[in-house]
Amino acid sequence: MRYLPLTPDDRTAMLAAIGAKSIDDLFVDVPEAARLDGPVDLPRVAGELEVERALSAMAAKNATAGATPFFCGAGAYKHHVPATVDHIIQRSEFLTSYTPYQPEIAQGTLQYLYEFQTQVANLTGMPVANASLYDGSTAMAEGVLMATRVTRRNKAVISGGVHPHYVKATETVVHAVGVETQVLAAAIDAEAAVIDQIGPDTACVVVQTPNVFGTATDVTKIAEAAHAAGALLIVVVTEAVSMGLLKSPGEMGADIVAAEGQSIGNALNFGGPYVGLFATREKLIRQMPGRLTGETVDADGERGFVLTLSTREQHIRRDKATSNICTNSGLCTLAFTIHMSLLGETGLRKLALLNHEKAVATRDALAAIPGVEILTDRFFNEFAVRLPKNAAEVVDTLAGHHLLAGVPYSRLAPAAGMDDVLLVAATETTLDADIRILAKALTQVLGA
Amino acid sequence: MSTMNTVGRPTAPNQVQSKPATLTGGRGLLQNEALIFEGDGWGKTGVDLPEPKTDGSDLGDLVRKDPIGLPGLSEPEAMRHYVRLSQKNHAIDLAIYPLGSCTMKHNPRLNEKMARLAGFSDIHPLQPISTVQGALELMDTLSHWLKTLTGMPAVALSPKAGAHGELCGLMAIRAAHEASGQHEKRRKVLVPTSAHGTNPATAAFVGYTVVEVAQTEDGRVEVADLASKLGDDVAAIMVTNPNTCGLFERDILEISRLTHEAGAYFYCDGANFNAIVGRVRPGDLGVDAMHINLHKTFSTPHGGGGPGAGPVVLSEALAPFAPAPWVVHDADGYRLIEREEDEAVQAFGRLCAFQGQMGMYVRALSYMMSHGADGLRQVAEDAVLNANYIKARLSDLMSAAFPDGPCMHEALFDDEWLKGTDITTLDFAKAMIDEGFHPMTMYFPLVVHGAMLIEPTETESKAELDRFIHAMRLLAEAAKAGDVDRFKGAPFHAPLKRLDETRAARSPVLRWTAPEGSNQAA
Amino acid sequence: MKFTKDHEWVSLDGDIATVGISKHAADALGDVVFVEVPEVGKTVAKGASFAVVESVKAASDVYAPVSGEVVEANDALSTAPETVNSAPQADGWFAKIKVSDASELDALMDQAAYDAFLATL
To answer: Transmembrane residues, as ranges (chain A) (predicted)?
Structure first.
């Protein structure tokens, strides 16, 4: 077997050195009743060619974003990633290293994490960021838990514009610890509705901008209302590129930012792995979940970096840890920071404008179709439309014509009574021809 | 003579007395590398994009006006920056990486190639189901392999790491107790003292009181202590098997019998499944839930700390409570059930926005299919053989924490043998760095003083093991011979000397900021 | 000065008790990097956690050796946590508590008893 270096002679010699007669001697602690005599009922060893054939056959059954006009968003976005990114993240020293527990021989990882933390802090407009969490949705859950620790209050008020899967993932976890949630009804443009729900028991309000319907909101007033009541404002961002064009959450008064970083450096990957961005204010860092890299010096006074404030974490605090998280999103973090370094501020702003431009063009094309109503006024690269038909059925029909037209809102929230709402996203990868194909196909399907 | 060395180029090394430090701080192939924020990248970009036709003014006051503070690098500069950084990292591709309980094994590049097939990497999590049949087939196939290898009837794929898997398992257990009306009285989770820190952290997170279970002299769960603590107020036990001392829990069948008798569930931390895969099925041990770290047993890359993936296999009793989403295969093909209300089940909710770590599913399945059922059994055997070989070859110089009987996939030593040398486990570990080896896991598990936990994995050759053992023996002999400075000051030959963690924690500096008086952004 | 088995010390002046952690505890923790002292005005119960002390590798709860109300906290520790190492039983104090029941101190160990207790560890 190509991944196993030991030869039968090696094994014999090693057993002799150990003083064991056979490999079974080393498994004597396993109760006899639980020992398997031979291999389980699965296929046997396979060469690269066979594995590649089998997996390629599965891959070939999927319609890929790059091969079709593509308008899906709702928390995962198709962007172009420079070739350099994927090359670098496959370098042995990054791909096959572990968590940097021995900083003297892990400065490569620690330095890029420090750079990543700075990039994320600046992008979100916040003073500090951690070394990433699993994804945007788990970052939101961690944000709510952190807010309850900081305020010693027990309730989260969540806007109706927050991605329904983010809400569900958050509720699943925070309800287990007894935190209450109040989720407002889904609405295209009503983030400010959370203000009336803030009470003395509110730990945090959670708003998303751009929200799941694409609406971008200035949340400054919401921040003021939250702070006046002693609550924190958590801003969720599912499209990180938007922060290259829109006011940053920090600028608008956020206390915690929980964002999905997939858009920068990372592929769609059918939903994962992604990278959760998490940023906050300086005075709250000891309540922040996840790994942190900090600057220090070595014995000679040379600058270096280490994992720090680890007493917050599970391996020291055990049952008193701020969170049970024990990992970050390593390689996805690296992909993010490389792509961001290549873009720089100039590139990011341009990229963001291109996204907005394509979305506006798509909106204009769809607005001209009889029966289609544009629901979102102010958007970045995604907007909602109301169709005269069931949106899921329309999307399925168009998929049959090799067109991925967007995400029906009912896919995320079947009980919201918005079966006719379609979420449409465009990015810098969207071609003018794609927009024409979408408009034409939609016109036909709706007219039929 | 027709050829003469007329330019005077010396061809043999000179002999000199001193070894001066370099003037720049660079050392041969090892480059100094500043932060990207300290260069001249403000205003630069390494990505060529068309000129946008909009300035975003339609968004009015929503537009970001102030500088963001993001320097850019051209492509050659980016390559250099990250290549220079990479050369300051140890890696499994460079040498043995014997971190106990972390399982640093070879990462096959076929896995990487397969995960990058556009049919897996370039598909959206919310595409119509008809357009992702192959992706769902892959998830279903992976599930089949995981269920067959563990002897368990169900699996929840979506947890994004081992600790996330623990959360998943305990929440399923809690949901099951809620469904049977027993949650109010069952508020304790029993955890052995040797457990990985995530176990008590997770149990506390889900609202349980953690009760520690004592360990026997030979490194196993003390069954009598466990039995005395089990009762109708216990929701579950969390036992790692093989445990963090690298030992198989001999009384595991008795442990699961007692647990079930008390009406509690058996959560098994599957971090060390790589030691028994193909030889033992956790389902045969009475396990109710177990997470599998795909990076440990099934070779997905550690990537400097992630991304992980922690699918959880579940018993018949817990299967109905698995979180959404999951894959169903019927006459119409594959379906993805995204909401529990779709089916007559009692799912406890959802753990993340989408389907979990698809990229890791592909890698893990690529690895499993490569090995096959027979190869995976050999994986466990070679992992255990390698660990026992190291234990046997070092036990005369170092003190094995549990000398009697075989270990499983990792060999545990304590610091008894360093007594009187003034050298600590940490010093010893740092001296290993100078010899070109990544240190073993140290000071874990907590039940052993000055613990040194060595896990070679099955992908080390005998030659590499012998090279490692040779270095360990030389170091151990040096320690015993009183060569103290070699250890106290180590590492001397790494990119940096020992780092000041106290300083980092007392006044945290967690980001770059522009020096005072500079006009750089942010 | 009296001591608890959890290595807190308490020194009574009138009805004001100054509390901190013992030299033994500070040494065992290693370099202290962070101290969370209680808020003034908070009521603490004997034996309950009222402060947190962290080194690089360990975090410990500090238990109130007496019951009462916190009347002063040593805020200087937030910027100079190393004081806990350099002067654990003097400038490294954590808080001053107005004791509600001075007899609670009777059960605590004096220096000699504490030294004897340490010898058994």
So the answer is: none
Amino acid at C13: D
**Strands A128-129, B452-454: parallel, antiparallel or unpaired by DSSP?**
unpaired
With an 8 Å Cβ cutoff, the interface of chain B facing chain C consists of 443, 501-502, 505-506
Residues of B in contact with A311 (CB under 8 A): 505
Q: What are the Cα distances from residue A232, in Å, to A158, A211, A227?
A: 12, 19, 6
Overall number of domains in chain C: 1
If we measure between CA atoms, which residue out of B501, B205, B198 comes closest to residue A310?
A: B501
pLDDT tens-place string over residues B460-498: 999 999 999 999 999 999 999 999 999 999 999 999 999
Return the closest-CA partner of residue A120 out of B69, B86, B303.
Answer: B69
Q: What average pLDDT does range C109-116 have in this prediction?
A: 93
* Cβ distance of B505 and C54 shorter than 8 Å: yes
Is the distance from CB of B358 to CB of A268 less than 8 angstroms?
no
To the nearest whole angstrom, how far is the Cα of B184 from the nearest Cα of chain A? 13
Residues in chain B: 522
Residue A134 has pLDDT above 80, yes or no: yes
Angle at B107 between CA B102 and CA B109, to 5 degrees: 165
CA C53 to CA C35: how far, in whole Å?
A: 5
The answer to whether the Cβ–Cβ distance between A311 and C34 falls below 8 Å is: yes
**Residues 6+ away with beta carbon under 8 Å from A326:** A313, A314, A315, B161, B162, B163, B197, B198
User: Tell me, what CATH number does C49's domain have?
Assistant: 2.40.50.100
Distance CA A398, CA A417 (A): 22
Which band of pLDDT confidence, cut at 50, 70 and 90, is reported for residue B2?
low
Cα–Cα distance measured from residue A69 to residue A398, given in angstroms and rounded to the nearest whole number: 10
Span A83-339: which CATH code?
A: 3.40.640.10
- What DSSP string runs through A157-222? EE-TTS-HHHHHHHHHHHHHTT-EEEEPPP-SS-GGGGGGG--TTEEEEEEESS-TT-B----HHH
Amino acid C79: pLDDT: 87
CATH code, residues A65-80+345-447: 3.90.1150.10
Residue labelled with tokens 């296929």 = A43
Please give, rounded to a whole number of angstroms, the shortest distance from the CA of B109 to a CA of chain A. 9
**Domains along chain B?**
111-368 (3.40.640.10), 373-495 (3.90.1150.10)
- State how far residue C109 is from chain B, nearest Cα, in angstroms: 28
Residue B454: enclosing H or E segment and its boundaries?
A: strand B452-454
Residue ranges of the domains in chain A?
A: 65-80+345-447, 83-339
* This prediction's pTM: 0.95
The beta-carbon neighbor of A316 closest among C33, C36, C58 is C58
What is the CB neighbour count within 10 angstroms for residue B396?
Answer: 11
Partner-chain contact A304 B107, CB within 8 Å? no
Please tell me chain C's helix, strand, coil percentages from 3-state DSSP, rounded to the nearest 5: 25, 35, 40
B160 vs A273: CB contact, 8 Å cut-off? Answer: yes
B3 vs A323: CA distance, rounded Å: 74
- What number is the ipTM of this complex? 0.97
